[in-house]
Every structure is written in C-alpha cells, then in structure tokens.
Amino acid sequence: MSVSLPSTSSALFAVSPLQEGNCSFPIRSSTANFIFKLHRTYPQLRASSSNASSIETGLSTELDAVSSFSEIVPDTVIFDDFEKFPPTAATASSSLLLGICSLPDTIFRSAVETALADSECYGQKDPGVRMSCFLNKALVNVGGDLSKLVPGRVSTEVDARLAYDTHGIIRKVHDLLKLYNELGVSPERLLFKIPSTWQGIEASRVLESEGIQTHLTFVYRYLCRCL
C-alpha cells in the first residue's frame, strides 16, 4: 500500500495496490522525499540445542509463520503424484471416498471397489448395517493404502451421525481398528477423527485411556476448544 502526501494543504490521500508485500509511504514536500517501508513480521519458533524453544522475529509469509509452529497437512485433495507432492500424513474420510469415486483413474479406486464387493457386507440383511459395513471397509482399505504412502499417521473419520452417541463412537472406532489390524496396520500409525461434541469428548477420553489415539474436529464452541 502506498500513500502519497503532497505538501499542499488541500492534499488528499492516494492509495495504490500492495506491491511485493511491502507498505510504502512516500511523503512529498518541497524540500525532500521520505520513504517509509513497513514490513509485516511474524514470530518464528526455533529449536535450540538445549531442547528448549525460542521465539524469533523475522520476515515471512503467514504460511511460513504457521508452519514454524505446526506441521501443515493437506486434507482435501487427492494426490496421485506422491513423489512430486509427498504428504507427511493423510486422512481417510467420506469426502475423500466421494472424490475417489468421482475420478476416472486413481490409485485408490481399487480399494473402494474391493470394499463394495465384500461378501460379508452383502450378507447383512439390514440396509443400514450393510451400508455401514461398506463404508467401514472402504475407509479402512483407503486408509491402509495411505499408510503405505505417508511416513506419518493416517486419520480415519468417524461417522458424524454418531456425534451425540458416546457408545456408538467407541464401537465404531473399535470396528475400524479391528479392520486395520486385519490389514496389518499398526495402531501407532492411526488416528481416529471424532466430532468434538460433549459425547465425542467423552468417547475420546475413554478411547485414549485404552491407548487408542484420537483427535477432535468440528470445533464450533469456545468451551469445546478449551477442552
């Protein structure tokens, strides 16, 4: 942003677009021109050799600033080119399954098709149970494939319709974990994505006490965030 201040008393502010991330304020007078440049700075976290962390201030973008405090994990796009865009972690979710089914050619399509052809699920007489079985198998099959491609953990979404059912969430996570065990995926590589309702928080507490790793999502209230 540039603001020009002519020396005349009738001067008006003239604002020009932001250029190169700097804010320039030229002040014009009859004697000299003064240029003030303001650079936006963000705190950066630096690890020291003594295992303590220190905060330094330097020039960076917002993304760089956030990255210095946390690890950025893409969560919404299907990448088949894992060599060019190597992710560090991944999430298996219903939206990911929908994206896989909408693409004509993806490395995860066979994982979904295998789940939809599962004879155990077809044997379920109740339509709701049958659909839940297909969804569980598809999530775990895709999650199992993702675990072979990323070095970090794979998060698996728990059905949001169970958000207000503590016991339902716990049963769902146990079912998903059992399927992952059948694929040979270590529990240490897994996270389970639970809605942060009061019931979800309680379910997470119980599961964590069992050694099952969880994380809470869909935080809409301040109290939930504090917990």
Automatic annotation (TrEMBL):
This is Transaldolase. GO terms for biological process: carbohydrate metabolic process. It comes from Nelumbo nucifera (Sacred lotus). PANTHER family: TRANSALDOLASE. Gene3D superfamilies: Aldolase class I. InterPro entries: Aldolase_TIM, TAL/FSA. Pfam families: TAL_FSA. Keywords: Schiff base. It comes from the Eukaryota.
